[in-house]
Each structure stands twice: as structure tokens, then as C-alpha cells.
Write a structure and sequence with these properties.
Layout lengths: L2 E6 L6 E7 L7 E6 L7 H12 L2 E6 L15 H30 L5 E6 L1 H12 L5 E5 L16 E6 L7 H11 L5 E4 L16 H17 L4
Parallel strand pairs: 3-4, 3-5, 5-6, 6-7, 7-8
Antiparallel strand pairs: 1-2, 2-4
Helix pairs in contact: 2-3
Length: 226
């Protein structure tokens, strides 16, 4: 069973909450799940459970605790607007500090990976560039990835994009990434739009979602997951 724990970011001493789950069966490593802008909603909880079932110890930090402790929102216009405001106010330095705290919590027990969705997809890419101790990252439909494509990477990254995503032009993002990092695997899923890892959402194709998960697990295995 997942439960909330408290962690402290070293860069500012702020105590934030994170959903924590122990692995089922032999431990393969640690995975940090980075939310969309809607907070630790039902889809994050479902993803945490999936990763734990695959044998990973999981942390899902509540990324906007500095602005609103325990924030969650519906996937509607109001929820999007509030989440966007919180993300902008939080800024990248606080986000990286919290992710680094999660890495530091997990790293003594094996390799550490990060997977992020939408806002979290951008933060996963940024963490691969800025954080210490990551073995690999998986970035899903991150709106800011194209603008960060030229960043040097400290950890390998795999990228997943939806061909039907109305917000993020998949082919343009892929081109930007491959111009700077031709070694990065980038997959475009033809049947899916934005948020396709969220099972049951309108833009989610279950076959695409499962294929992306399998590719991410295999990528993590290539980079140290036992």
C-alpha cells in the first residue's frame, strides 16, 4: 500500500510530501513519478501502483506543496489554470530540488529512474540534465522539452509523444531532440493524443500506453534496473 511521507529539499530546507510505495517482489530499483499539473490525482496513484507491481520502489512527490500543500485538481479548465499557475510560481529550481531529494532518498538501495507526464515530462528531461544520481529518465509529452532539447544530459532519456496531441507537435519535438541528441529514442504513438498514459482518458489508447510502459521498463533495464 502506498502512503504519504515527508522529504526535505536540501536547497531551501522545505519539507514536501511524496506518495511512497514499496516494490512487489524482488526490488529492481527506484522510480520517481512526476505528476502532470493536476497534482497527485487518481492517475498518479494508478501509475505508482503499476510501477510498484513491476518491482520498483516508487516516490511521487507533490510538486506544488510550496504553493498549495497536497494540491490536486480535476482535468478541466479551472484545474489546468490553477495547476499552471502553481507550476510557474514554483519554478524549475524548486522542482529540481525536490526531485534531487527523492533521488537521494532512493539511491542507497539501487539505481534510480524518473518518469514524468506532461509537466512531469518536461521536469523529467530537465532532471536528466541537472540532477545527480539518475540512471535514466522517461519523458512523456512534455511541453517544454523542445525548448530544452539542447541541454547537455547527465542521464539517458527515452521520450514518448502522441501523434494526435493538440498541444505538443510530436514531429517538431522529435526533430528538435534528434538535432541535439540523435542518441535519444523518441517514439510517436499514432493512436494517441495528450495524456495517453492515463487509462480511460479520451486521448488514451490502451495499446499505446502499454507499449510505452514496456519500452520504458526495457530502457530502465538497459541502464541498471535488475
Amino acid at each position: 500500500m502506498a502512503q504519504m511521507i515527508a522529504l526535505t529539499a536540501a536547497h531551501d530546507g522545505f519539507s514536501f510530501t511524496a506518495l511512497h510505495a514499496e516494490p512487489e517482489g524482488p526490488r529492481k530499483g527506484g522510480v520517481i513519478v512526476i505528476q502532470e499539473i493536476f497534482g497527485l490525482d487518481q492517475y498518479v496513484h494508478e501509475d505508482v501502483a503499476r510501477w510498484a507491481a513491476r518491482g520498483f520502489e516508487v516516490l511521487a512527490p507533490s510538486m506544488f506543496d510550496r504553493g498549495e500543500k497536497g494540491f490536486t485538481a480535476l482535468h478541466d479548465e479551472a484545474g489546468f489554470a490553477r495547476g499552471k499557475d502553481l507550476a510557474l510560481a514554483n519554478g524549475p529550481d524548486n522542482a529540481m530540488g525536490d526531485i534531487q531529494a527523492c533521488i537521494d532518498f532512493l539511491k542507497g538501495r539501487g539505481p534510480v529512474f524518473v518518469v514524468g507526464y506532461c509537466y512531469g515530462g518536461t521536469m523529467a528531461w530537465l532532471a536528466a540534465a541537472r540532477c545527480e544520481g539518475l540512471s535514466a529518465a522517461s519523458s512523456y509529452y512534455g511541453g517544454g522539452v523542445a525548448g530544452m532539447a539542447k541541454f547537455d544530459l547527465k542521464a539517458p532519456v527515452i521520450v514518448h509523444l502522441g501523434a494526435k496531441d493538440p498541444h505538443i507537435p510530436a514531429e517538431e519535438v522529435k526533430a528538435a531532440i534528434w538535432t541535439a541528441h540523435p542518441e535519444v529514442p523518441v517514439y510517436v504513438y499514432e493512436a494517441s493524443g495528450h495524456g495517453f498514459n492515463n487509462d480511460g482518458r479520451p486521448d488514451s489508447d490502451l495499446a499505446d500506453a502499454e507499449l510505452a510502459r514496456q519500452r520504458t521498463v526495457a530502457f530502465f533495464a538497459e541502464h541498471g534496473a535488475s
